[in-house]
Amino acid sequence: MIKNVIKRLFPKLDSVKEEKILKIFGPAVLQANLWHINKKSVSRGFAIGAFCAFLPIPGQMIVAAFLAITFAGNLPFSLILTWISNPFTYTPIFYFSYKIGKFFIPTGSNYQLDDKEINLLSDLMHIWEPLLLGSLILAIIGSTLTYIIIRLYWRYYVIKIWEKRKKINL
After folding, report:
1. Which of 21, 28, 39, 164 yields a CA-CA distance of 20 to 30 A from 153?
2. Do 99 and 127 meet the contact criterion of CB atoms below 8 Å apart?
3. What percent of the chain has pLDDT over 70?
4. Whole-angstrom distance between the N-terminal and C-terminal Cα of the chain?
5. Measuring CA to CA, which residue among 77, 72, 79, 82 is closest to residue 30?
6. In the chain, what is the greatest distance between 2 CA atoms, to the nearest angstrom?
7. What is the pLDDT of residue 8?
């Protein structure tokens, strides 16, 4: 069962209490729902992690931790899912975000990303509005889809377990 494997990999609440780095969050990080694997906390953790993964900001994991604590999502899952946008996937994700944002915000300039020389600050001044809007659209869509998929999968898995129990008891 996947749940049992994940439980073995995740840290226990007692060992979390001893971690010095997590003490900066105070007693809020010791909420039981942040570490237990149940339908609500896991689906919230996935949604929070997927939402933060598409945001074009530094410190996505800190934002994900804050949102997981605020909305009682599974903290490890929300932190892991932020790595959807990693150094290998930043470029395609943010380029796609820029294209989506440009569809909704037609800019007066016909600015194109140039392969020859990329000056991050000057390029960002031209593209920040469509990039931010496109990123927010992708973040909302991604978090909604992951939330729905996790809830549906969880329901499917529980139904399969019930059917298996019925067969055994007959």
Report:
1. 28
2. no
3. 73
4. 22
5. 72
6. 71
7. 67
| pTM for the predicted model, two decimal places | 0.79
Cβ neighbours around 5 below 10 Å, total? 9
pLDDT in tens, 53-97: 999 888 898 899 899 989 989 988 998 999 988 888 888 898 899
Place of tokens 């226990």: 12
Q: What's the rounded Cα separation, in Å, for the pair 77 and 73?
A: 8
> In sequence order, what are the residues at sequence separation of 6 or more whose Cβ sits closer than 8 angstroms to the Cβ of residue 49?
64, 77, 78, 79, 80, 81, 82, 84, 146
How far is it, in rounded angstroms, from Cα 80 to Cα 146? 14
How many Cα atoms within 13 Å fall on the side-chain side of residue 53?
26
